[in-house]
Structures are given as C-alpha cells and as structure tokens.
From TrEMBL:
PANTHER family: PEROXIDE STRESS-ACTIVATED HISTIDINE KINASE MAK3 (PTHR43065:SF10), SENSOR HISTIDINE KINASE (PTHR43065)
CDD domains: HisKA, PAS
Keyword terms of this UniProt record: ATP-binding, Kinase, Nucleotide-binding, Phosphoprotein, Transferase, Two-component regulatory system
Enzyme class: transferase
Kinase recorded as keyword: yes
Catalytic activity: ATP + protein L-histidine = ADP + protein N-phospho-L-histidine
Protein name, as recorded: histidine kinase
EC number(s) from the headed UniProt entry: 2.7.13.3
Biological source species: Cohnella lubricantis
Superkingdom, taxonomy of origin: Bacteria
GO MF annotations in UniProt: ATP binding; phosphorelay sensor kinase activity
InterPro entries attached to this UniProt entry: HATPase_C_sf, HATPase_dom, His_kinase_dom, HisK_dim/P_dom, HisK_dim/P_sf, PAS, PAS-like_dom_sf, Sig_transdc_His_kin-like_C
Domain Histidine kinase stretches: 149-360
C-alpha cells in the first residue's frame, strides 16, 4: 500500500473542502485574481458586498468593478506589481447594514513567479462596535466622576439662592412691584433648569447601591403610565401599551428601570411635535438567556443614519433646550443591569429596544460601590 500517495490525496481533499468552506463563509472573505487582474475565485461574503452572484463575477476584470462600487474597494492593479498591504480598512453597505472590514492583499507566486494576487477580507464590525462602546463608557465614567464631585457643590448654593429669592416674592407682591415679581419668576424658572440639569448629571454618576430584585415589567408600567400619558396628552400624542401576559419577571433595579423608560418615552414624545403615536410593547427576548425586551416605538421623523452613531454620546442633542444626557443615562443604567439597548430608525419612526435579563437568581441583591444616588431636590 502506498501510504505517501494516500496522504497527498487526503491533503488535497482536505484543502479543497477548506476552500469550499471559506468560499461559502459569510464573515470571512477571499478574492483570487489572475495576472491580468481578473477574478479567479470569490467568496460569498465578497459577492454580497458587490451585490452580484459568484457566477457573474468569475472571469471579470476587477479594477473597473472595484471602482464602480457604491463604496469603491481600495484595491487596484498596483497589487500585481508587488504593492502588498495589510489591515486596510473598508466600510461597505450590505442592504441596510453598514459593515467594517479589514483587507490584506499580496502577490500569489508559483516558484518565485507572480501568477496573480489574493485579497483576504475580515469582518470587524463587531470589534468596532465594541471599541465604540468602551470609548463611550470611558467617557461616561469620567463625566460621572466629575458629576459626583461637583453636582452637590452646585446644588447647595442653588438651594440657598432659591430660598432667598422666594423670600423676596412676598414683599414685592405687597408693594405691587409686578415687573420685579416677573424678574423673580424668571430667576426661579432658570434655577429650576440648572437644577434639573444637575439632577441628570447626578444620574450619570455611578449609583451607590443597585438593588436588583425580580420585577414584573407590566407592574412597573402600571405605575409609570399615568406620568407618560400626561406628557403624551400635552404633546397631542396617543399612547398605547401592549401588555404581554406570562412574561418572566426581570432582574433589575426598579427606580433605575423607570428612569430608562421615562427618558425613552419622553424622547419619543418630543420627537412627535406634530402628534403621532407612542407604542410600548413587551416581548420575550430572542436570546437563549431569556429575559424581556421592551420596544418603545414612535411615529416621529426618525433619526438620520449619520446621527445614529452619536445619539448615545453624552451632551449630544438636537433640541434647543436638550441636555443630551438622557440616552447616556439610559445606556449607563442598562449596562449596569446587565442588559442592552439598541435602536432602529427609518422614515416611519424610531424603535428603541431595551433587553433586560430574566430574574434567574431571585432574592439576590447586588451592591456596588461608587458615588451617591440622587435624592435631594432644591
Ligand atoms: N425617538 C426619537 N426620535 C428621534 N430622535 C431621537 C429620538 N430619541 C432620541 N433622539 C435624538 O437623540 C438626541 C439625544 O437624546 P437624549 O440623550 O435623550 O438628549 P436630549 O433629549 O436632551 O436631546 C436627541 O436630541 C434627538 O436628536
Ligand atoms: Mg432626552
């Protein structure tokens, strides 16, 4: 029996299977080019980015094809002249989704002679998102620390100012000094604005004690709906809440969770300045870990794609009197609770989805150290 021959046949078979696998892979791409820059082989992932079938691409001259893509591929004939590269980044759009890729390219040689070139594509979208999240949470952490250190220092004098200003109201009224009374009103309103900004600031500082307990989302909304409904009525928005019975309880801090849904609900209502409807829907989370997802849907104008990346950034706002802290606070809280928050938006409106872990360990209470939980008001 010829063992050596056997081994060669197995190896080729093995490599062929591997290549078939790579060619069909959705997250790893391969492109082989001949000496005249024509496509010899192309994998599924790359076909998807080109929006073509593999059969339409094989044998085609690649240079023109790359240049004419909606997002031109940064690869040209210089590759055949030895212009190898590594980690070249490329952003492409596949349908609605934006993908981040990195490309490596090099010559393909046969006994020292160049016979063509290859390009390898890796999808790093997930890594990018992770980096973005870390960047954001680092920034939030810093802001939280500054907030914890300064917010009370701002609040205390504010309380004093408010007290003394209020003392002025009576004597002014007695002397019928209506203009001065108006000034006092303005000062008080502005003080209230500073105060609520400081309040949002404090929410960003790390809460001292997170009290995780099993919570029924339906019950939580029962308590919150009157408040949201009030806000909705004032803006001419109709509010629908779709209860889903039989959902498992989630494991979260009740006050923090309320804060999240209030912020999201308020944003939705504020987005519909010409009226519309706000729909709050709960469902079982699709992931295997269980848990509940709450969708906050509005029929507002939607969020343009180039803005979607920035809405969770602290201080990003498009509103005249916005603070840009609402979504940062939501994200901070949801991460703290071990959940996730995502957004989809289009011309028909926006959906924020909040996934909260299930109460799999009932009765357990997690306590984490840090700053102070906001409690005092001016
Ligand atoms: N449901 C929504 N529809 C449209 N835009 C939204 C929605 N929610 C948030 N945004 C955008 O995200 C920005 C940031 O929101 P947020 O952090 O709550 O701060 P603020 O409400 O103070 O502006 C808003 O200014 C707005 O442009
Ligand atoms: Mg807001």
């Amino acid at each position: 029996m010829d063992h050596s021959n056997n081994r060669v046949v197995d190896r080729e078979h093995f490599l062929r299977r591997f290549l078939d696998h790579v060619i069909g892979d959705e997250s790893f791409g391969l492109l082989l080019l001949d000496r005249r820059f024509r496509i010899v082989e192309v994998s599924s992932m790359v076909c998807a980015a080109f929006g073509r079938e593999r059969s339409q691409l094989l044998g085609r001259e690649a240079g023109g094809l790359f240049r004419r893509l909606p997002d031109p591929l940064p690869v040209d004939r210089s590759l055949l002249r030895g212009g190898s590269f590594r980690n070249r980044s490329y952003t492409c759009r596949i349908g609605e989704r934006k993908r981040e890729w990195v490309l490596d390219g090099d010559l393909l040689r046969d006994e020292g002679k160049a016979i063509g070139a290859y390009v390898i594509f890796r999808d790093v979208t997930h890594l990018h998102e992770l980096e973005e999240q870390i960047r954001r949470s680092d920034r939030l952490k810093m802001i939280g620390e500054v907030a914890a250190g300064t917010a009370h220092e701002i609040r205390n004098p504010l309380t004093a100012i408010k007290g003394f200003i209020q003392l002025l109201q009576r004597p002014l009224a007695e002397r019928e000094m209506s203009r001065e009374l108006d000034y006092v009103e303005i000062v008080l309103t502005e003080l209230e604005r500073v105060n609520s900004l400081v309040g949002e600031f404090l929410l960003l500082s790390k809460p001292k004690k997170v009290e995780l307990q099993p919570i029924r989302i339906g019950k939580l909304f029962e308590e919150m709906l009157p408040m949201l409904r009030n806000e909705a009525v004032m803006h001419g928005v109709s509010l629908h809440y779709e209860v889903k019975p039989d959902l498992p309880p989630v494991y979260a801090d009740k006050e923090m969770l309320k804060q999240v849904f209030l912020n999201l609900g308020k944003n939705a209502i504020e987005a519909m300045d010409k009226g519309g409807s706000l729909i709050i829907r709960e469902r079982r989370s699709p992931s295997a870990s269980g848990g509940v997802t709450v969708d906050i849907c509005d029929t507002g104008p939607g969020i343009p794609e180039d803005r979607l990346d920035r809405i969770f950034d602290p201080f990003f706002t498009t509103k005249e009197h916005g603070t840009g802290l609402g979504l940062s606070i939501c994200q901070r809280i949801i991460h703290e609770l071990g959940g996730s928050i995502s957004v989809r938006s289009g011309a028909g409106g926006t959906i924020f989805s909040v996934a909260i872990p299930a109460a799999s360990v009932p009765g357990q209470e997690l306590v984490s150290g840090g700053g102070a939980l906001p409690s005092d008001d001016v």
